[in-house]
Specification:
Length: 84
C-alpha cells in the first residue's frame, strides 16, 4: 500500500452540524434513553427512601437474625426428636 492514499478514508464519520436535521431513529433512541434514565432515577430515589426507613432498625437486625436462626435450629431439633 502506498502512503499517498492513507488520508482518503476517515476513521469516523464527521459530526453533524447543529443545524442539520436529526434522524427520527436517533431521536427515538434519545427519547427512550431519556425515559429509561428518568425511570431509573425514580427507582433509585424510592430505594433510598426505603433504606432510610430501615435506619432505626439497622442496629438490632444482626441480633434479630441470630435469634431467629437459633429458634429455627431449636425447633428443628425438637421436631426431629419428638415427631419421628
Amino acid at each position: 500500500m502506498s502512503s499517498s492514499g492513507a488520508g482518503r478514508y476517515m476513521a469516523f464519520p464527521p459530526s453533524p452540524s447543529p443545524s442539520a436535521p436529526h434522524s427520527p431513529h436517533l431521536s427515538g433512541l434519545r427519547s427512550a434513553a431519556s425515559t429509561a434514565l428518568v425511570e431509573q432515577d425514580k427507582y433509585l430515589n424510592e430505594l433510598l427512601g426505603e433504606r432510610n426507613k430501615l435506619g432505626p432498625f439497622m442496629g438490632v437486625l444482626p441480633n434479630s437474625y441470630r435469634l431467629l436462626n437459633q429458634g429455627q435450629i431449636h425447633f428443628a431439633v425438637y421436631f426431629h426428636i419428638y415427631y419421628q
